[in-house]
Write a structure and sequence with these properties.
globular, 18% strand, alpha/beta, single chain, Rossmann fold
Length: 297
Amino acid sequence: MYINATKLQKILKRRTLAFMIVEFVGKGGAGKSTLATSFVKYLENDPAVERVLAIDADHNMHLASALLGDRDVVPYSGALEELINLIGETSCQDYREALLTAERHIAFDVESEFFRKYSVSLGKISLMKCGGHTDDIRADRSCSHSLFTPLKLLLPNLELANGQWVVIDEKAGTDGVGTGVAAGVDLAVVVSEGTAASVATAQQIIQELDYLRVSHILALNKVRSKSQTDRVSERFGRPPDLIFHELEQLAEVEYGVVGPSDHDYQEFTKLVGMSQGFNSSRAIRLQRARSRLVKTE
């Protein structure tokens, strides 16, 4: 699902920043983390945005490294039991049962006990990270996917207020969408380079997003020429929604990175405009996440 140029212009004219959960997905090396980090900084500098929750959903933790610097935060990978209690089913044995029987939502309140424990505040940004591999994973008693299971409860049950945005830097490839984390997002930004391998991975990711009924837009990154854009457009059967040129190394500041370049700022403005054309609500996310569990039974 994507928005054509005519509809986009109408949306931009009446642009308002409500709330949205946006996930950046794509092949390893396509530039997900760079674009996700730059988009977080873009939102931070927008006066209409009240709060940004940046979530690193990759155990390589590129987003966390870029934004945190030398700071640290308790990994959310250990938050599953607390999340089960927050949504109302303390007797549940696993996240599937808890998700299917959830009674309460989770408000994005930086002063709440949960977010004070599992996020760190950096101005308008709150950052959460999954953390690295555990001893259970190293000893083959658990899978690395277990690090991200808490997101399968948090995202579908997260209630956002106007001006609150969530930006997720997902794992490389189809892992994040294939294992269900993406069911809890409002919009996926599928990032692809112009290479055949990157395009093929992006197409696989889009198939998984369609299965989950998650809206997506296509971002072509590291563009060097119009001919490259034309070739990728032919492969996808449509032009990319967003185009980012070969990025220069982002300069470091006290924490994180400098905001996007002028061109990238325009593309992120377009992204925000496009996002307003998609539905965003906890009810939709929760229904979608529950439907995925029913499908796989």
